[in-house]
């Protein structure tokens, strides 16, 4: 009887009530895109919007903050954002190398290898008193790294000052930066750690930030056994502020799976094949829950179940219209034919190499190919830890062996400081149509103190990948030339006026190593020698000469 | 047939042959060599600094460019920076240095010309340590030239030019402040050899204070000029500070780099202090003991700098060894010149070899090169202690049969 009454109370609740909590909206989306080489790219996106919220003004950090009550918005993250007054925050944890030449431009543009963290924060209250020292941008940046390291169980805390840079052009805020009265400019901080490994221990805290965890909805498909077996996988956290909407938190997970390796015998895929799971039920608090599948344009195929709508060659499946358990299946009628030439879908093709066999100097060679029929302007961003330093005076630009210094329009450079600061090089290049521009810079390699070497020092250091960002003006010309499969990603980029970023893989550099086993020996040898010479010199200087009769 | 060592023949011939070699591709092959150029003198770093400066980036904001702002002023306004012109300028530096060494020799002998002039010039121009350093376009030939010019003017009694050269030298290399005391003593007395007849410092010390003041004034003016050139005081920690804190641990032929690579972090400041002060504690004893011959005191302190400097290059020991040619009177009293020569030969052959094996071939490790720098330090130390011994021993002269000279 009591159960019946309880159900009756439940029935009173309007069905929409649970979807629209006071001022918070949660929506989820899964985009699945077959890649030209037969693999399947999938991108999960979980968006929580906190309506009407604004980032905390760091000028008020010494004032007690208002209490935080969230229903859908992740509290653990909200506390970090308020505590350190972060306006915009991006964190990506990726494993593997995104192959632009074969996979095209990714749905989530930030595919840098390893961990990357970048944020916009305003300067705290101006006085330099000791009490406010921890309100400064750099102090809050340090605390933010530590807090996120704790939240995501990742080595973000080691993104210290030696890896922090502030490049000006390659990164622009996705949302808006509030114009606080009497507030100083927002500061940008970026750091990346290419050697960070991404695994289950990072996914578990990621899932905990979702309102339905991995129990229902699309997040149920996030099966670590399959995701971390993928050819490429990466997760992202993007917090931004929309002036008319509020604070938006976007949690993304992107992967590239191989249907053949997953147990299929063709490129046909299904949710069960890719994730070894199906969608059992919808997340009850999600305002919208969709799966979007890019459908083949030139070949015969069958998709089951039928999409709710098809726009632009992309079939949308709204989970509210579907029956559960839902297992999407896409089958091709024809067997797969490998393309003989790699279909370059990415707007640019970038290669980067470290040349030279010597352990004290070498050269960095970058070649950027513009396959388009229009010239484009890009920013080439290089952030190098101080162990490798650039000889900017040796920078050479050439196209097909002909030197073209005119292609370098502008350059901004922050020199490295040994044991302290990373170098930042932003070169503004114009790439002629259908050509390959080669950039050649001499580099030197520092010699490190024996305590500065990482464990397994002979393996070397991972250098963060370079970023080539197409400037927004140029990306407008781009979308017409690219394949329709990428259109969605492109339009999204344009909507936010973001420069399209292309990341190169990390490089491995092996600095010369001292002998780690003999600090005592070196100290003893050197000190003994100095004491011996010192003693001999002072012996000669202080003792008097005397003439003695020879004993014999 | 008597071998003619006439200066008017030898000098142009040597300079011309060196110029020819400098204009070949040898500098490109040698400019990465760590023994010939340190981070403070490297031509690559100099070019980088000039490039940054010309493009409106403060070269002292980073940690690569550690040359004095005077170099920036020189190379961005007066001198062009092409490789050919650089080779000519660097060779001219050595030519001026050799000429100054000959002048020092003449001042010591108090004659206007000797038959030994050509030999002295040759000792400087043919010294492989100095020669290769110049070929690698390291800026240490500038330091050597300024050292020799300062000593030359001091020996000739020209106080102001000597002190100006010493102030310039201080800006190029902080450690050379060690040479100030013997230079002032030299200005206050004479360069003539008194080694065989020691006596107390004859001249009164009254005119020492104005000389020190004049040096301080020159150094201050040059510091202000440097600040104006570089647009701030950032050059001080980058150039002078580097000699004290050793931020760049690039291998060189000295003793500091591996010691501070392997040093425990919490002892680093202490040992940096010890090593820096260690350079200074030689000044007073050497100047007091050789007060009757300040030129010899300068020579001994040059040897100490060559052995214990924070960022030495091969040109530093080279200067010490070449200057030995000015003191032929001590040759009979050297105890073990053969051993010293063999040590130098041993180190000079092994250092480039082990450096190459470690960093290029990858078949050796850092200890190999470190061991060869220890041998090199032994060689420099042996030369130094032998010169100290011989410079003092000469005063006793040859004892009669049945007697020996010992230290008590």
UniProtKB/TrEMBL annotation, chain A:
The keyword Signal applies. Residues 1-18 form the signal peptide. One of its GO terms (cellular component) is GPI-anchor transamidase complex. It comes from the Eukaryota. Keywords: Membrane, Signal, Transmembrane, Transmembrane helix. GO terms for biological process: attachment of GPI anchor to protein. This is GPI transamidase component GPI16.
UniProtKB/TrEMBL annotation, chain B:
The chain crosses the membrane at residues 88-107, 119-142, 162-187, 208-236, 270-288, 295-313, 333-354. One of its GO terms (cellular component) is GPI-anchor transamidase complex. InterPro entries: PIG-U. Pfam families: PIG-U. It is a multi-pass membrane protein. It comes from the Eukaryota. Pathway: Glycolipid biosynthesis; glycosylphosphatidylinositol-anchor biosynthesis. It is found in: Endoplasmic reticulum membrane. The keyword Endoplasmic reticulum applies. PANTHER family: GPI TRANSAMIDASE COMPONENT PIG-U, PHOSPHATIDYLINOSITOL GLYCAN ANCHOR BIOSYNTHESIS CLASS U PROTEIN. This is Phosphatidylinositol glycan anchor biosynthesis class U protein. It comes from Favolaschia claudopus.
């Amino acid at each position: 009887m009591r159960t019946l009454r309880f159900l009756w109370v439940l029935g009173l609740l309007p069905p929409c009530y649970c979807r629209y909590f006071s001022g918070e909206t949660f929506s989820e989306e899964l985009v699945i895109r077959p890649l030209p080489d037969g693999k399947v790219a999938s991108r999960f996106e979980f968006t929580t919007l906190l309506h009407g919220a604004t980032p905390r003004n760091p000028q008020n950090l010494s004032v007690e903050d208002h209490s935080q009550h969230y229903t859908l918005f992740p509290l653990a993250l909200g506390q970090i954002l308020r505590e350190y007054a972060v306006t915009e925050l991006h964190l990506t944890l990726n494993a593997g190398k995104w192959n632009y030449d074969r996979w095209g431009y990714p749905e989530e543009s930030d595919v840098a290898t390893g961990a990357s963290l970048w944020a916009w924060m305003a300067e705290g209250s101006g006085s330099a008193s000791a009490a406010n020292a921890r309100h400064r941008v750099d102090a809050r940046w340090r605390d933010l790294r530590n807090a996120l390291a704790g939240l995501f169980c990742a080595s973000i805390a080691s993104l210290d000052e030696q890896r922090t840079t502030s490049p000006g052009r390659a990164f622009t805020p996705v949302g808006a930066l509030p114009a606080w009265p009497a507030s100083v400019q927002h500061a940008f901080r970026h750091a990346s750690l290419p050697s960070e490994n991404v695994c289950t221990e990072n996914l578990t805290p990621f899932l905990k930030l979702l309102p339905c965890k991995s129990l229902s909805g699309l997040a149920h498909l996030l099966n670590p056994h399959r995701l971390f077996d993928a050819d490429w996988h990466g997760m992202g956290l993007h917090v931004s502020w929309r002036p008319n909407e509020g604070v938006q938190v976007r949690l993304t997970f992107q992967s590239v799976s191989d249907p053949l390796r997953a147990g299929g015998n063709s490129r046909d895929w299904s949710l069960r094949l890719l994730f070894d799971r199906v969608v059992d039920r919808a997340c009850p608090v999600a305002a919208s829950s969709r799966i979007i599948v890019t459908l083949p344009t030139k070949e015969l195929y069958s998709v089951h179940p039928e999409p709710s709508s098809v726009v632009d060659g992309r079939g949308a499946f709204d989970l509210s219209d579907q029956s559960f358990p839902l297992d999407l299946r896409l089958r091709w009628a024809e067997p797969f034919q490998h393309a003989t030439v790699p279909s370059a879908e990415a707007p640019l093709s970038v290669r980067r190499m470290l040349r030279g066999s010597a352990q004290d100097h070498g050269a960095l060679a970058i070649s950027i190919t513009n396959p388009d029929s229009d010239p484009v302007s890009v920013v080439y961003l290089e952030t190098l830890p101080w162990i490798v330093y650039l000889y900017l005076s040796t920078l050479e630009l050439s196209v097909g062996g002909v030197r073209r210094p005119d292609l370098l329009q502008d350059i901004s450079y922050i020199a490295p400081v040994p044991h302290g600061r990373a170098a930042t090089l932003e070169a503004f290049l114009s790439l002629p149509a259908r050509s390959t521009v080669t950039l050649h810079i001499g580099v030197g390699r520092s010699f490190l103190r024996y305590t500065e070497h990482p464990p397994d020092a002979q393996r070397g250091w991972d250098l963060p990948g370079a970023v080539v960002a197409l400037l927004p003006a140029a990306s407008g010309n781009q979308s017409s030339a690219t394949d329709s499969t990428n259109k969605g990603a492109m339009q999204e980029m344009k909507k936010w006026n973001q420069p399209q970023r292309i990341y190169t893989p990390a490089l491995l550099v092996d600095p010369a190593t001292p002998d780690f086993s003999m600090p005592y020996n070196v100290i003893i040898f050197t000190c003994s020698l100095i004491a011996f010479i010192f003693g001999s010199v002072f012996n000669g200087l202080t003792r008097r000469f005397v003439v003695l009769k020879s004993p014999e | 047939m008597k071998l003619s060592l006439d200066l008017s023949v030898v000098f142009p011939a040597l300079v011309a042959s060196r110029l020819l070699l400098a204009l070949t591709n040898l500098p490109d092959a040698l400019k990465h060599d760590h023994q010939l150029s340190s981070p403070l003198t490297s031509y690559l770093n100099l070019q980088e600094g000039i490039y940054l400066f010309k493009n409106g980036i403060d070269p002292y904001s980073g940690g690569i460019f550690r040359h004095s702002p005077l170099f920036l002023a020189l190379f961005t306004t007066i001198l062009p920076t092409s490789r050919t012109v650089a080779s000519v300028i660097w060779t001219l530096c050595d030519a001026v240095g050799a000429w100054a060494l000959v002048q020092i020799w003449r001042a010591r002998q108090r004659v206007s010309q000797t038959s030994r002039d050509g030999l002295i010039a040759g000792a400087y121009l043919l010294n492989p340590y100095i020669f290769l350093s110049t070929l690698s376009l390291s800026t240490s030939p500038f330091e050597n030239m300024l050292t020799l010019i300062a000593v030359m003017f001091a020996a000739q009694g020209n106080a102001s030019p000597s002190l100006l050269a010493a102030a310039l030298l201080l800006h190029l290399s902080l450690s050379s402040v060690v040479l100030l005391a013997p230079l002032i003593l030299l200005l206050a007395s004479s360069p003539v050899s008194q080694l065989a007849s020691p006596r107390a410092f004859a001249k009164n010390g009254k005119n020492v204070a104005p000389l020190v003041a004049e040096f301080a004034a020159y150094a201050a003016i040059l510091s202000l000029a440097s600040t104006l050139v570089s647009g701030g005081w950032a050059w001080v920690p980058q150039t002078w500070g580097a000699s004290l804190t050793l931020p760049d641990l690039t291998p060189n032929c000295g003793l500091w780099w591996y010691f501070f690579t392997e040093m425990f972090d919490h002892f680093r400041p202490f040992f940096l202090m010890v090593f820096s002060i260690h350079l200074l504690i030689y000044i007073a004893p050497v100047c007091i003991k050789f007060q009757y011959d300040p030129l010899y005191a300068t020579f001994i302190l040059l040897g100490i700098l060559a052995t214990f400097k924070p960022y030495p290059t091969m040109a530093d020991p080279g200067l010490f060894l070449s200057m030995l040619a000015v003191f032929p009177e001590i040759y009979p009293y050297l105890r073990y010149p053969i051993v010293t020569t063999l040590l130098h030969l041993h180190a000079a052959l092994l250092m480039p070899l082990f450096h190459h094996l470690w960093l290029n071939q990858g078949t050796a490790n850092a200890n190999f090169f470190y061991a060869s720098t220890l041998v090199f330090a032994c060689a420099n130390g042996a030369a130094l202690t032998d010169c100290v011994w011989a410079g003092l021993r000469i005063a006793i002269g040859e004892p009669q049969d049945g007697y020996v000279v010992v230290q008590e």
